[in-house]
Amino acid sequence: MKRNSQIYIFSVALLALASCSLTKYVPNGSYLLDEVKIVSAQQEVKPAPFRNYVRQNPNSKWFSLIKVPLYTYNLSGRDTSKWINRMWRRLGDEPVIYDEALDLRSQQEIKKALNNQGYMSASVKSKKEISKKKLKLTYTITPGKPYIIRNLKLDIRDRVIGAILEKDSSRTKLNKGMMFDINTLDAERQRIVELLVNRGYYKFNKEYITYTADTVRNTYQADLTMHLLLYKASPTDEPKNHNQYRINKVSFITDYDILQSSALSSIEINDSIHYKEYPIYYKDKLYLRPNVLANNTFIRPGHLYAERSVQNTYSSFGRLSALKYTNIRFLETQVADSAKLDCYVLLTKSKHKSVAFELEGTNSAGDLGAAASVSFQHRNLFKGSESLMIKLRGAYEAISGLQGAYGNNDNYTEYGAETSINFPVFLFPLLSDNFTRGIRATTEFGLQYSYQLRPEFSRTIASTSWSYKWTQRRQKVQHRIDLLDISYIYLPWISQKFKDDYLNNANSIFKYNYDNHLIVRSGYSYYYNSIGGTILNNTAASNSYSVRVNFESAGNVLYGISKLINQQKTSNGDYSILNIAYAQYLKGDFDFAKNIEMDKRNSFAFHAAFGAAYPYGNTTVLPLEKRYFSGGANSVRGWSVRSLGPGSYKGDNNTINYLTQSGDIKLDLSVEYRSKLFWKLQGAAFVDAGNIWTIRNYENQPGGAFRLNSFYKEIAFAYGLGLRFDFDYFVLRFDGGMKAINPAYPSGKEHYPILNPDFSRDFAFHFAVGYPF
């Protein structure tokens, strides 16, 4: 009965949409642009790239299927004085009326794009198909035969530049036999400009590079000549060779106010010092050490001007938290017969001290709670842009389902403190200044302390870390080295019931994790993002992808020392430091995500992640902090967080099942269709797959071990829909997932819930911040 009512409601909604004519607000004599297609008469020329040149597109479709925004607009009445009508119109999209002028412009733009690719005889025609008040438009492109460059000549009258280009000729984008592609010609202009502005040619730009082409009649061939023009300060001046500039002096002005006059003479300066070859001017007090200014500057007196050095200097100073803005100016000067540039690095100070308060709500597998924190930050601790952060945090969570099993305390509380100091240099002994300047890394030292009190136990975690981070290739690549990370986990109290239920069994997987233990690890992380820069939702960008690789190891050095000194093992059969057992394991993770844009409103997102950890030597069980979990908002969304796996293990229906549902191997696969709906709202349809497994057989996790010949049968599948509010700076996400294949059951209806869905059994709701991948 319930299912029939759902089908009835859905049918009524479809009929309501269907009853709203798409052409309700299309004037008589006009046509709704219903569809636009591009086809190519020649197989070697694909039509897809020319879609961007179409100047009028039909109304958007949700998930590329239904024009819901247009239907929404048509729900409004004609009386715009009524608020309900105005609301429907704001939420919807006005019908796109076919415009013949835009049709002609689209043809011209597509033809121009074909001409730029070398198809000079290309033609573009549009065909209209009209049905009632709807119009379908098809553009047929006929590229014709492309023009080929028969001969290539260079006309360079500046001999110095000619010699530079000749040495770099192997990198040219032009050659005989290539298509006469305007885009390639322009790319060659840009390549030459980049080469010359890094060889001292401060005033050179691509307007000094022109082309002439002589076509040979009836041959589809062209003789191309590239001209590099001489320098002219004004149209009436005599042309001359381009000046090759050298840096005369580099000066720092540390108290520049961008709101004041831009003239250098108006900048207020009270004092100055000289450091090596650099004059430094300041107003009241120099807030950065002189060597910090010098080490972050790549512009050197006496060297040729190089745009690359300017950009590297901007990037290097941009890393300093003590600075808010950086501006670099050059003033032309003449010294003897040489062209020189005086460089001024103008620095604007940031606010060095700040205090922040944060309040947040938490949701851990349905258990609601709240957390609060206060943090202090000093961005210039030792006058070298060192950033100190001190943070205090408290959290509370109401734990449901324990039903008094652990006394009257059914709540979770946490108190914590952390501090870190970040140095904007690669701090390590015996490294040269050239190396540390070139890598532009940051060094971070951290200390953390956390006290957690649960109904079952209390736990203290103390840790310290030493790490390096740096970026490369226009911020597309990020590296992180965790040189040393030490964590000490101490459990001062465990309830007797918890011990009886889980720890007193000698074969229990938890026994090690609820003993005091030490983790001394090192690791390396590599992250690549195809669009570069710092973005909050990388896969929200069109046609982007990211790759993340992480590797870490723990306990190997300590184990080697224990063996070397012939240390005696404890009664548990492991080595220890101060009677504290240390973990030994290897762990690696790989993560790939890609976004493919279908059109301006629709895209596909793919995600694949794999991780494996292997405990050995001094450890037979991976520490709980390093184990994998499956299910939840960023995993297989048909399951709640930490409720899937390992393998075919289905839990034992107790109230703290997350303890048993962890593993050493993890697999996550997802595909998601994303569609912009209206305003900031986006929709998604997704399919997830994955699970976790253990490397060894554990008594408390029957069916959880990974087996090469059967693991694929234990991959869980889920499907669902989601809504996201994308506010650019953050995303609120609501996902509802349904189980499709449940590996906890070997066969039957329970194994294939997609064929016999039960909403109360198979549905999981997730709220999260940010995209899942």
Give an account of the 3D structure.
The protein has 773 residues and is of the alpha+beta class. Among the domains are: 2-142, Ubiquitin-like (UB roll) (Roll), CATH 3.10.20.310; 148-228, membrane protein fhac (Ubiquitin-like (UB roll), Roll); 246-349, membrane protein fhac (Ubiquitin-like (UB roll)). It contains twelve helices and 29 strands. The strands form four sheets. The chain has an 18-stranded mixed beta sheet that branches. A hairpin with a 3-residue loop joins strand 16 (442-453) and strand 17. Helix 2 runs antiparallel to helix 3.
Please render the helix and strand layout as text.
Blueprint: H1 2-19, E1 32-40, H2 68-74, H3 83-91, H4 100-116, E2 123-131, E3 134-142, E4 148-156, H5 159-167, H6 182-197, E5 209-216, E6 221-228, E7 246-253, E8 271-275, E9 278-282, H7 290-295, H8 307-318, E10 323-335, E11 338-349, E12 353-364, E13 367-378, E14 387-398, E15 411-423, H9 433-439, E16 442-453, E17 457-472, E18 477-494, H10 496-503, E19 517-529, E20 545-554, H11 556-564, E21 576-577, E22 580-582, E23 585-597, E24 602-615, E25 665-678, E26 681-693, E27 716-726, E28 731-741, H12 759-762, E29 763-769
Q: Could you describe the largest sheet, including whether it forms a barrel?
A: 18 strands, mixed
Low-confidence segments: 1-19, 534-540
Let me know the number of strands: 29
Q: Termini, distance in Å?
A: 38 Å
Tell me the Rg in angstroms: 33 Å
Number of helices: 12
* Helix content bin: 10-25%
